[in-house]
Amino acid sequence: MVPAPNAGSIRFTPLVLLIYDWYVIRISAPHIWKCSTKKFLLPFFVENFSKRHIDIGVGNGYFPITSLSKIQASEGAQRDQHITLVDLSQHSLDSAKQRILSHHPKVDVRTVLADAAKPMPAALDGEKFNSASQYLLLHHMPGPTAAKAQAFTVARQHLTDDGVLFGATVLGKVWEKTPEGYRVKTEAKVRGIASFALGFYNKRGVFDNYGEDPNVFEDVLRREFEEVESHIVGMVFFFKARRPRT
Fold first, then answer.
1. Pair 93, 85: CB distance under 8 Å
2. Are strands 175-178 and 52-56 parallel, antiparallel or unpaired?
3. Strand, coil or helix: what is 55?
4. Which tens digit of pLDDT belongs to each residue from 7-61?
5. Which of 28, 69, 71, 159 could form a cystine bridge with 163, CB 3.0-4.6 A?
6. Where are the alpha helices (DSSP H) in 39-163?
7. Could you tell me if 94 and 111 are in contact, meaning their C-beta atoms sit under 8 angstroms apart?
8. Tell me, which fold does domain 9-244 have in CATH?
9. pLDDT digit string (tens) for 82-119?
10. Which residues form a coiled coil (predicted)?
11. Cα–Cα distance measured from residue 50 to residue 178, given in angstroms and rounded to the nearest whole number
């Protein structure tokens, strides 16, 4: 059965994917969400990206493409790489696969049309990966934080015993990490272009993140994994979880 798209996934049209690098990577991340792609998003991806990887929520393939280029430059040769791409948008899957192969033709790439928060289709039964990414995905998914966090449970089921799940999502408020957990910074309200962008995207269903709570994300991650790390840069919540619980 073909999974039903949501308002966030159907926005990834060929035109949007064409300008993805410029708008999402170069403009939105550093200037609207105050989280530099070059300093934070890309290094975090490279650090956790394994030779057998599943990318859940693919955009246009920017992060695996650029990570492979950086790894190749540092190692002096292209590594033996498999990537399974999972997304609700067929446009995104086709675009990402084409772009990955155009830059790295020796990479083994497979695409799977699926909902990140629901069990993966039969094509992935028994498949295990050393790493899984959910990059700039969760803020597009509809529903409360706990429902979105089902994506962690799904990903955990497809990781090896020492596998790692990592990701980043744009939050709908200004949060900070304290010794007691995350809290909203009431003295630092979202203003200016970030406030406008959040209102615009949430009203149209592109985002559904006003109610996202990083404490809930972390609680679910700790339920599913032995080791969990998280932090915030600007308005972006980063997470990394290792050693899936059985």
1. yes
2. unpaired
3. strand
4. 443 455 666 656 777 888 889 999 999 999 999 999 999 999 999 999 999 999 9
5. 159
6. 42-48, 62-75, 90-103, 145-148, 150-156
7. yes
8. Rossmann fold (3.40.50)
9. 999 999 999 999 999 999 999 999 999 999 999 999 99
10. none
11. 31
